[in-house]
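Discrete fold record:
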Amino acid sequence: MRVLLDDVSKTYADRSGQAVEALAHVSFTAEAEELVAIVGPSGCGKSTLLNLVAGLLAPGAGAIAFEGDLPPGRPPTAMVFQEFALFPWRTVQANVELGLEEAGRPAADRRVIARRFIELTGLGGFEGKYPHQLSGGMRQRVGIARALAVEPAVLLMDEPFSALDAQTRQLMQEELLGIWERTRQTILYVTHNIHEAVWMADRVVVLSRRPGRVLEIVPVELKRPRTEAMLGEPGFVHAVELIWGRIRSQARDALQEGRE
């Protein structure tokens, strides 16, 4: 499934009623089976962009379209949030079944499908556990399994590993790439971490400070599957330096703006 954003803009009202232009004239395409990362300075509209693609917000101008076959009963998108967003009173199994339940799938089908994605995300044996009994990395795996269980055409991820410690984050990045290798779903991945974006993505969309505009789309010249050894390859270093060079002054301006 391809995702096409054509001249998308979004303005919203802040708490004081003032108009805030979050995004302006954003255009790019995520190809089928592609992992596209989106980076930019704080407040550049990255999360707003994902919410627009998810249909949680409507663009003020421009259009967002999905191109490709969507089998009946499958949603175009599912979201994995920065916070784990699990129901504490539901077990791992019940949390993963949630989207299927909301879609009206029969209980027997829900159990089978959820179990498949629980196994896929390495949670086998933890079906009966509750969120408070799991580590942060495992809780985020539950969120990923829940999103995958509804079999969306496009997986949207909003800084999914930012709340994790550095070691767990690295392991979760590797696990996500392994899942992507097996499912080959189109993924839009928002992160503030340039190294993470380059190591994981096929291309990186670089947004400016607010209102977010596309500064550049950087192709990542690394083979797949990705390994930690690639973190020292010239293609990795070049892409990181190129993106930071585009963002650095934008981030400084955004920081100064926040202090005023």
User: Anything to note?
Assistant: The mean pLDDT is 92.
